[in-house]
């Protein structure tokens, strides 16, 4: 949490564009591995002329947006779902007329970008609020909940609250310092507004990253946990005393000219690490290609120390060669 009450600090928060971000709040409630997240911002245009205000939020892929509202001077506008082409057309027309409009766009492999733009007259206050749900997945023995925190500018009040409610009980909670060194004590409540700044007298925010929370639940029963709700059920099962299953792996490595330099060096180092992690009951082989294809072994081999050493020597001897794949010439 970060709050500013000083008039001098408020002047610093007021940028050259005369736009004030009064608050930036995120609240996420996790119940039985289901997260309900709300992102809310309150913005004011203190200029004497109209300006475009943007509400730009990163949302995890797979999350379900179930509500978006804009409140302009006490009047609330709610969102609706449209077919993709119709939505884009309506968004373009509304934006051209200076009306309130928002659209969901794909931004990255693991994130969606929700952006709303609004032409706001001078002296107008606007509140944006979006709600979305997502299922929390378990990876590497813990559940991960990622919340992008990107206010875009200094906020008079910045707050992120995460509540975790698990019927089985919580075995541990960990919050890695993913936002930067200045937020190493971010879990302490009521920190000063200067924590947001890139420097002591900067008017730009240093808050631009992801808040990651990892946790796991207690498991008192070997059969897992069964929950029933409204005629549906979910079975959580995570055995911790089973040996890993044997793996059959074929590594495919690009050795074309495009891999020359640091790319090939990184690939070789990664392969050496992966080969060292193989278990004795795993089977593997290696295939590399440019305009030709070459196999290290014709069949999968057991991951014995001798075979792993031989594979490591083979990988270390790989050198990029050639560029585009050759095409056969006409006879």
UniProtKB/TrEMBL annotation:
InterPro entries with a match to the protein in the record: ITIH (IPR050934), VIT (IPR013694), VWF_A (IPR002035), vWFA_dom_sf (IPR036465)
Domain of life: Eukaryota
Domain VIT: 5-134
Pfam families, per the entry: VIT, VWA_3
Protein name per the record: Inter-alpha-trypsin inhibitor heavy chain H2
The species this protein was found in: Crotalus adamanteus
Organism classification: Eukaryota, Metazoa, Chordata, Craniata, Vertebrata
